[in-house]
Amino acid sequence: MQVVIAGGRGFLGSALADSLRRAGHAVRCLERKPRSPEDLAWQDEPAWRAAVERADALVNLAGAPVACRWTPENRREILASRVESTTKLAEAMGDSSASVWLNASAVGYYGDGGDWVLDEASPRGSGFLADVCAQWEEVTSTTRFAGPVALLRTGVVLDAEHGALVPLARLARAFAGGAAGNGRQFMPWIHRADWVAAARHLLERPISGPVNLVGPNPVPNGELMQALREVVHRPWSPPVPAFVMRWIGHVVGPDASIILEGQRAVPKRLFDNGFRFRFSDIKPALKDLLV
After folding, report:
1. Which domains does the chain have, with CATH numbers?
2. Distances (CA, A) of 196 to 12, 19, 161, 209
3. 105 membership: H or E segment, kind and range
4. Which of 10, 134, 199, 265 fits a disulfide with 188 by CB distance 3.0 to 4.6 angstroms?
5. At 238, is the secondary structure helix, strand, or coil?
6. Structure pTM?
7. Rounded distance, CA 16 to CA 19, Å?
8. What are the tens digits of pLDDT across the range 226-271?
9. Please, how many CA atoms are within 13 Å of residue 14, restricted to the half-sphere of its CB?
10. pLDDT value of residue 139
11. How wide is the angle at C-alpha 263 spanned by C-alphas 173 and 287, nearest 5°?
């Protein structure tokens, strides 16, 4: 296949691009700051639109990081970077010969879900991230593209070198890896290898609509941190009170709601579509990444 990945040099995009290339597919990355001659630049719209129109598949992972202070300026950038890039891609996909489109979203769509088990049929929640995800997903419905569009509602992606696990493991090793707040908020995690495998599965067996890209067994924050401490051989760490998390979020970020709120999201549509996980439980996943 010929695949265009918007955000293909990022944490997830780079892993997916490498995996596709190893399998013999041709991949072009669409970036604001191209790193190689084969990359496409957002600034050169005629070139990237032509590439999208000729592609067999589009994967859109573009968007500013949410793990920051949610100042008014950052909130605007988080929303605009997603909606504006997806709007432009939706226009190009109306003239594309592609057979499938994967567009990023997040489990933040469900808001703070408490103990409720959330599959793709669960309603939209409330809050800033829920609003961002809803507007982001809505853009894909404006296209003339007639093929399947999968909305990748991704959870916390675990990786040894990038993403949330890096600072969490550092804290755990420094005897500061306690539960955040009451520790009961669910963390819908997925191993990076399974995320890549799931994205490739959806390119090969396309479906339309939301798809939870999370592992089958989400765990509360306290349980995840306990498993992490066991893997790095730190038997105990004091919990971090919620007011401390909010103060940190206000001063330096990330916003405390990212950590203190959670979603017990499950990958029902992935299972229904025949996908099987390599890492279903948190402790083996952490051992694979950190040991």
Report:
1. 2-290 (3.40.50.720)
2. 8, 8, 15, 18
3. strand 100-106
4. 265
5. coil
6. 0.97
7. 5
8. 999 999 999 999 999 999 999 999 999 999 999 999 999 999 999 9
9. 8
10. 97
11. 35
